[in-house]
Amino acid sequence: MPPPPLSAADWLDTLHSPAEVRRVPRRLLPQVAEALRAELIRRVAETGGHLAPNLGVVELTLALHAVFNTPDDRLVWDVGHQAYTHKMLTGRREAMSSLRQRDGLSGFTRRAESPFDPFGAGHSSTSISAALGMAVAAKLLGQKRHSIAVIGDGALTAGQAFEALNHAGEIKADVLVVLNDNDMSISRNVGALQQHLTRLRSNPVISRLRDGGQALLSHTGPLGDILGSTRIGLRDGVKHLLGVTSLFEELGFAYFGPIDGHDLPLLLDTLENLKRHSGPRILHVITQKGRGFNPAELDPVRFHGVGKFDPKIEPQPLATHGKSWTHAFADWLERHAARPELAVITPAMIEGSGLAGFAARHPARCFDVGIAEQHALTFAGGLAAEGMHPVVAIYSTFLQRAWDQLIHDIALQNLPVLLAVDRAGQVGPDGATHAGSFDLAFGQAIPNLILAAPSDRRELFALLDAAYAHAGPALVRYPRGECPDDLGGEPADHPFGLRVRRRALDPSRSLLVIALGAPVALGLHAAEHLPATVVDLRWAKPIDWPALLPLMSTHAAWLILEEGSALGGIGATLITEAALQGIHKPVRRAAIPDQFIEHGSREQCLADCGLETTQLTHTMTELLRQAAPR
C-alpha cells in the first residue's frame, strides 16, 4: 500500500533547497506559502527584524524558486531585507534563529552566506544594475542562464534604477525585472513615478482585460487552455492597440502586468511564460506589505521593523528605553519650526528621521523626495541659493550615496545647508551595509563644511543651533540609540569651543581623553577611577586648537575616542597637528578599524572597535602605566 500523500506542512519540512521546492505539486504550493508565512512570523518574533516587507513576498519568493533554476539562474533581491523567505527556502531555515545576531545570518542578502545570494545588498536600487551585469557576463561567456532582479516600487524611485533600465533597454539585454509594487518603501511612496504606477494598477481597461479575459477563457474549453497559457501576451497586445502603454515600454522593456502577487497559480503561469521570452522584460506584481498578519497589514510603516515579540501579542516597533537621538532631533526641529526660511528634506525617511510631526504640521516645507539622496542634496542647494535654509535629515549610510552633490553642489558654492545625520557610527543588527562609519573621514576633507558630533541632548541642541546659524554648509552627526540628557562638566567658551567634562588635578601625571560624540560618555565612565581629563571635542571641524593644544602639551599621554573610521578620522587629524606643533606624547586611539564590522548588537560592534567600557579602562590603565609610572 503506497504511503499517504504529504500535506503542505509535511512538504515544508522537506524544503531544504529550491530543487525540492520544484518537486512540490503545484496545487499544494498555496498551502506551503501559508505555512511559510506562519513560520516567518514565528522566526521574526524570536529575533526581531523586518517583518512587514517579508510577509508581502512569500508567494512571489516561492514562485520564483519554483520556476527558475536557482542558483544557476541568478536571482537578485533589491535591498535584501525582504529575503527572509528566500533564506528559508535556500538551506537556511534552521539558522533563522540567529538572524541579525553576531555570527548569525545577515538581515540582507550576502554573497559569503550562500550561493543562492549572487549579489549582496543593503542599500536600495542596485538589483537591476547587478542583474544586468550578470546577464551580459552570461552572454559574453557563452552561458545559458536567466538573470532576475526583484525591485520594489520605492527602490525604483532612485536614479540608479533608471540608469540600469535605460542601459538594459538600449542593449536589449536578456534580463527579467520583477517590480514588487506594494505602494511602500518604509513610508508611503511619493512622486510622479508612484502616480504612474497607480494609474497602471487602477486602469479600468487593464482590469477588464485581466478579469474579463480570464472569465471568458474559463468558458472556452480546450481552446481556453491553449489561450490561457498566453493570456498575458494576448492582454498586452490588446492593451497596446488601445494605447495603454507604460514608461517601461518607452525604455525598451516588454511590460507585463499588473498581476496579483499573492495569486500563486497566476504567478507560476506568468513566470513560466516569461521564462520562455528573451530580451528586457518587466513583470509588474501587486503585493500587500504585511500580508497575513493583521497588525502589519493595518500599519505597515510601524511594522516595517520590530523587536522580539510574542506572536500572540501585537509586536512593538524597534525602540530604545529612553528618548532616542532621533526624537531629540525632532524636538529641536519643533523649536525652530516657525522659521519661514526653514525647509526639511528627507530621502524616504519621514518616520525613521523623526519628521512625522513636522510633516503633519508644516507639509508645505517638508519634502520627502523618495529614495533619491543625490537629488535631495542638490535640491537643498537650490533652495539655499534662493534664500531658504534647508535641513536635510538623512542616515549616515545613505549620505554615502550623495557625497559628490555635497561637494560640488553645496560646499563648492558655500550654501547654507544643514545636514542632520542620523545613525552615525555602529548600528548593530543591520550590520556593515548600514553602519555610519565614513562621514567624519569624508567630511573633514571638504572645504567650507563644518562638522559637529554632540555627546548629549543639551549639546545636540547647541550644536544644531550653531550649525543652523552658520553661513555655509554644516553637518551634525548623532548615533542610533538612547540620548543622554546632560553629561555635565565645564561649559564651552564659545559656540565652536570644546568642553572639559572632567579635569584632572595633576595633568603631568594624568591621561588626556579626547572624545567626540557618543564616545564621550564611554570615556567618562571608563576613566571614573583614574587620573584623567576628559575633553568633549564637540567639533571635528573646526577644532578648538587654542584650547586643545595646551591640554595636549601638559598631559602625560592621550587617548582619542571616535565612532568613525580610524583612517582619515579625527584621531589622524589630532596626531598630525600635534606633531607639526612639536608636541610628542604617548597616544592611543579607539575608532572603527579598517574593516567592515559584522552585524551584532550595537555593544558588540562597539567592542570590535575597542569602544567598550572595560576595554577602555584597560587601555587607559596601561597607557598611564607607560607614560606616568608611579
Reading off the top of the CATH hierarchy, the class of the largest domain is best stated as Alpha Beta
Strand order of the largest sheet: 9-8-10-11-13-12-17
* Low-confidence blocks of residues: 204-220, 223-235, 238-244
Just name the CATH architecture of the largest domain: 3-Layer(aba) Sandwich
Largest sheet: 7 strands, mixed
Q: Within the CATH hierarchy, at the fold level, what is the topology of the largest domain?
A: Rossmann fold
| Helix-strand makeup class | alpha/beta
Cα radius of gyration in angstroms? 27 Å
Beta-strand content bin: 5-15%
Number of helices: 27
For this entry, give a set of tags:
630 residues; Rossmann fold; 7-stranded mixed sheet; 41% helix
Question: Topology of this protein?
Answer:
Blueprint: H1 8-14, H2 18-21, H3 29-47, E1 49-50, H4 52-55, H5 58-67, E2 74-77, H6 84-92, H7 127-140, E3 147-152, H8 159-171, E4 176-181, H9 192-202, H10 204-217, H11 221-228, H12 231-241, H13 247-250, E5 254-260, H14 264-275, E6 281-286, H15 294-298, E7 305-306, H16 325-335, E8 342-346, H17 356-361, E9 366-368, H18 373-385, E10 389-395, H19 396-399, H20 403-411, E11 418-422, H21 439-444, E12 450-452, H22 457-469, E13 474-477, E14 499-502, E15 511-516, H23 519-526, E16 532-536, E17 539-541, H24 545-554, E18 557-565, H25 570-580, E19 587-592, H26 602-608, H27 613-627
Parallel strand pairs: 2-3, 3-4, 4-6, 5-6, 8-9, 8-10, 10-11, 11-13, 12-13, 15-16, 15-18, 18-19
Antiparallel strand pairs: 1-7, 12-17, 14-16
Helix pairs in contact: 1-3, 5-14, 7-8, 10-12, 16-22, 18-20, 23-27
